[in-house]
Amino acid sequence: xKVAHRAxxxxxxxxxxxxxxxxxxxxxxTPKADFKAAREEDLLxxxxxxxxxxLIDRMVVWDIITELRQGKxxxxxxxxxxxxxxxxxxxxxxxxxxxxxxGKIEDTEREFVDFFTLGLFENIAKGREVARIxxxxxxxxxxxxxxxxxxxxTGRPAGxxxxxxxxxxxxxxxEAYTTLLAAIDGYVHDEGGxxxxxxxxxxxxxxxxxxxxxxxxxxxxVVGDIQKGFNVKARGSIExxxxxxxxxxxxxxxxxxxxxxxxxxxxxxxxxKGDYSVDTAEKISTEVGGNILVGRxxxxxxxxxxxxxxxxxAAIIGGSVWCVKGFEGRIVGNEIGVKTDIELRNELEVTRExxxxxxxxxxxxxxxxxxELHIGPYLKNRNRVPLLRNQFRDKMMMLLDKYDQxxxxxxxxxxxxxxxxxxxxxxxxxRINVTEKAHAGAVFRTGDAMLELKDPVQGPASxxxxxxxxxxxxxxxxxxTKE
Length: 483
Description:
Layout: E1 2-8, E2 12-18, E3 24-31, H1 40-48, H2 58-68, E4 74-81, E5 92-95, E6 129-134, E7 142-143, E8 149-150, E9 161-162, E10 166-169, E11 177-182, E12 187-191, E13 194-198, E14 200-203, E15 214-216, E16 219-222, E17 232-234, E18 238-240, E19 244-245, E20 249-252, E21 256-263, E22 269-272, E23 276-282, E24 286-288, E25 292-299, E26 302-304, E27 308-317, E28 320-323, E29 326-332, E30 340-344, H3 352-375, H4 390-423, E31 432-438, E32 442-446, E33 449-452, E34 457-458, E35 461-465, E36 472-475
Parallel strand pairs: 9-13, 14-16, 15-17, 16-18, 17-20, 18-21, 19-21, 20-22, 21-23, 22-24, 23-25, 25-27, 26-28, 27-29, 28-30, 29-31, 30-32
Antiparallel strand pairs: 1-2, 2-3, 3-4, 5-6, 6-11, 7-8, 10-11, 12-13, 31-34, 31-35, 32-33, 35-36
Helix pairs in contact: 3-4
């Protein structure tokens, strides 16, 4: 530090020095013989000669004078202090939603991580506030110890880049930030510093532990395979370029397309409001609002469609098919006569509620049949029951009472089933088409009518139920796919 001012008074000699950053003023005081006569006003006068009075630290000056009156000087006491400049704050982007971060586990503090539910992104609905861009501030200029202004730096804008899928909205009542809103449904994706909302969740490889289960507001596209046990739920469509490898639940409010093999199993299920298309399927249970399209083969599947099942170049082997508008397949069944059920139903009969009702009816029928075996001849000769010994009589009466309850419940369920059948007529042109061959063991059903093939039938052939759904008839073949 260099001496900026020097003065000699009756009681002391003062030297004032300015720090290198020009923000502090230091005093070096040397007592003289008349130190007891030192006055605060004299020291303040010398300090004020080079620094504004509002920057002087009066308490330090008073302390120096107190010490000086005792014959004590000081080497370097800070007697004044300037004001440091306050730089402006840079603008910043603050996210209010979770962005897509493949392979990142959000909760690192957990001892165990559920790799099926990683939560790597957040569903964003159109119109939702996703982020805020805070504006830069101007900053405050400073003053050095002699009173000169010290300029400051103005904050830099955030420099955020985003496309038309994100809308910037300025609120007149809010000066601190600009609001970013989602212009479409999807998830926030960072493309090297440029942000966008994507309505297609693209899984570049296999859907496995790197992604976990998927529940997405838009469309889902899997380039590889969906590994065993991983589920996909989408408000849009689901497209799998590879295969689905078992015990998966796939749910779409649109369509589902699987280019490769779709293997299910006891824990698998597929639900789509639109079409479901697959090359090869095995042990798949479906509930589809649109058409089911099979490329090569479906084996031991439960294919339920509110429209048509189209397998013009495919074989349907085993399992069951429920459809409303009809069925067309190249081959039904196989050479060894495996049972393959194809059933034409109305719009109500193909629903899950009807299926539950139908299953309940079958359970009641099975229970009634089991009770008939236990009751034996007493079912038709109930007047003989009172002649039995006490314990046998009581047991038989209990079995008969239970049988009557089962029958009453069964009658009620069958009446509900009849109402559902009559509530919606069968599609006028609904039929079953076989383009190449229907093997023995193929069973065609509708209403009260059942046709079980005992011998193979060469195609092309069409089977159509009568209007009352009590019998089947063979009709001239008509391509179902051209209607």
